[in-house]
Amino acid sequence: MLRAWLTRGMIFAVLVLGVPAWAFEKPDFVVIVHPSNPVSAMSRLDLERIYRKDIKFWPDGEHVIPINAPSSSKVRASFNKTVLRSSIDALVTFWNRKYFGGETPPLVLRSSDAILSYVAQRPNAIGYVPAGYSIEGTRVVPIRFDD
Amino acid sequence: MRKLLITVLAVFVLAASAPPCALSQNLDQRGISALGGNLLIGGYIAAGIELLDESADTVRGDNTHTRQAVLDDLSMFLTYEMTADLSMFVEAELEDSLFLDEDGLEIGSQLFSLERFYLEYEPNQYLRLRAGKLLTPVGIWNQIHAAPLVWTSSRPLTTELFYDTGTTGVQADTRWHSGRLDFALSAFGQATEQLDETHGPQRQGQAFGTRMQIGGEERWYFGTSYLHFKDRSEGRWETTVGSDFLLITDRWEFSSEFAFNRPDGAAAATWGAYAQAVFNAGHGFHPVLRYEYVDMDGISGSPLVFGVAYRGSGGSVWKLEGRVGAEDLGTGGNGILASWAKLY
Prior knowledge:
- The complex is a heterodimer of chains A (147) and B (344).
- Chain A is an alpha/beta fold and 147 residues long.
- In chain A, 39% of the residues lie in helices and 16% in strands.
- Chain A has a single domain (23-144), classed as Periplasmic binding protein-like II (D-Maltodextrin-Binding Protein, domain 2, 3-Layer(aba) Sandwich).
- Chain A has 5 helices and 7 strands, in the order αββαβααβαβββ.
- Chain B is mainly beta.
- Chain B is built from 1 helix and 19 strands.
- The radius of gyration of chain B is 20 Å and the shape is globular.
- Helices cover 5% and strands 58% of the residues of chain B.
- Chain B has one helix at residues 2-17; strands at 32-34, 39-52, 67-81, 86-101, 104-107, 112-124, 127-135, 166-178, 181-190, 204-216, 220-231, 236-248, 252-263, 270-279, 285-296, 299-301, 304-311, 316-324, 335-343.
- A 16-stranded antiparallel barrel of chain B has the order 2-3-4-6-7-8-9-10-11-12-13-14-15-17-18-19.
- Classes of the chains: A alpha/beta (147), B mainly beta (344).
- The A-B interface holds A 45, 48-49, 52, 54-57, 61, 63, 68, 70-71, 86-87, 89-90, 92-97, 99-102, 104-108, 110, 147 and B 25-30, 37, 40, 42, 77, 79, 84, 87, 89, 120, 122, 124-125, 143-144, 146, 148-149, 175, 177, 180, 182, 217-218, 248, 250, 253, 280, 311, 315, 343.
């Protein structure tokens, strides 16, 4: 009985509120780390926490250095939509408040080549580049979009 | 000296507001970074116009003007990452520094204040230590109170009546995640008095407190705070407890805070609460509505604030609001407030 009502409620919620765009979004980027990084896979939520600087350390205790693509790039827009799941407006509010607290946003590099080169040289760094991009010197970390 | 300080900060604001220069390597970052990104200098500026029907309690204790333009804040942050684990943060401010009213242009009498100055040590994911002058970790507003970050020109009384904005001492924070939930716990203490008392003696002497917070993916959280402190003017210990709630969606931001204060052994208590809703109407416009109720020492009031904030590009915010129901609360009464603020 309860399950039936829950199912009806969910169908109603989807009909009324609509399905969020990210539910159908297929990521068109890959997340890369240094080849020596021991992390084999990661959840979307942990990746979001890294890019919001709520997670600042890898499991082995090393500092995480998240790298962002330029805010005007397509790959950044795709990353914001599928990983951070926030509007630009909400992200601006979020980082302005963090900035007041002494926290700076992730480092931004000017191109995918620059991101690739940076991650290839630093074992603690994590970044993302468009899917299909040559990732020489780095390793792809599969992201679980199961939430 | 005051004019020199204002001039120096004004020049800095203009320089920092300019397009990113060669020093800045972080395209998303405000301010100016140098020393390989380890040093960041930023801040904010805020100015406003008040058309109110009562005089307000301001830095100028003798202020009797109800219509005035004020350069509210000229603030500068400095963050220096000494090592991966250790950093320093400084926020210096020129507050209520220029007034324009019926008497002409005046310079405020108490200009320069050190809002924050602390060392931070963060050796792992579960521990962060801060020592120095900090923002008292109570509630929502107090920890983001800079003009460009809040949606109204006026501040709810609930966020400033029951504790000092700053605490000089130490603070230990821990945080952890469980599934989709984020948890944070803080403990803090102040041994003697504030590091900088530009605005006169602060209320808190010795103090200690805790804050607990539970939230989800930076979209909502619920917090509770506890503060036990010695009231320096009354010479007695008091307890303040509070709770707060924040919910952010792509279109809405709802927030609410409650605070309750009682001197030890006394029957009388003071308390206040507010609830605020902000709607993202698009094109940078954010209508705001806030209702508050405060009951303090026999005086009670229920200010209602309604207005709109416009967020333009480059970190600037314009605000216009009306206020009713704020008679005899020491905040200037009812009327209209408008302001501009910019984060740089």
